[in-house]
Amino acid sequence: xxxxxxxxxxxxxxxxxxxRAVLLATEHQAALEVLHVxxxxxxxxxxxxxxxSRQAIEENLTNxxxxxxxxxxxxxxxxQSMTIQPRVRIAEIxxxxxxxxxxxxxxxxxxxxxxxxxxxxxxxxxxAENVLARETRPVLIAKQKADAPYGKIGVAxxxxxxxxATIRKAGELAPNATTCLLHALQAPNHxxxxxxxxxxxHIKRSRSEFYDRAVREIGKLIADRQDERISRVVELDYPPAxxxxxxxxxxxxLIVMGKRGGRLGSVVRHxxxxxxxxxxxxx
Length: 283
Prior knowledge:
Rossmann fold, 21% strand, 10-stranded mixed sheet, 2 domains
């Protein structure tokens, strides 16, 4: 990891993202770009009240936010040596974030869990979901105070090839953390099978075979890893419920999930909105 991009609107929620991004940049000796996006709508609102030209208003706004970002960079660099690049863009928020990530070739994008007004769902909501849906780079949603590097990670996996990439990204982000692979097995509904004429013995045998196959396939994901810090859990359950239960049981500070076919699935959306842990979504 060489380049991290973190977006901020100077709210308490984005401060959590800033702290996590600084910690990660320090861990990985990566450069950090700190971005603030000015929306055209906010410029429009000022144009209605100020006599200055739009160009002058945009310039004054940009300079003002650059000043805040440089103050932040100076405070961080006074405590530790690292490369921080402030950046201000005028764009729609999600577009500004995606374009900035492409411009600096970010290995990771870090966002806060809410924006300045949480009811606006600036980050966890339509904007974040649009960034996550469009962006192929890993995106980290920071929710918890960044007191220490990630120590316990839960990685949601399935039986597709993309799970290997999800596990690899988790390891790259937090190489010293313990990792638990979580697979929620959704077997055919036994009531429906019974209605179709299957016997209880056949249903029981089929579910057992279904479970055993899943255990073998998940085992293959870590077969070449001689690492006692990697464990696995396979259960017949609804995925969000399983992730929530094991997060509470093992106290994950990070949940890592992959997108389904380049788009956000319902499970990712559910965890985004309901988990208290930080969440890394891998494209």
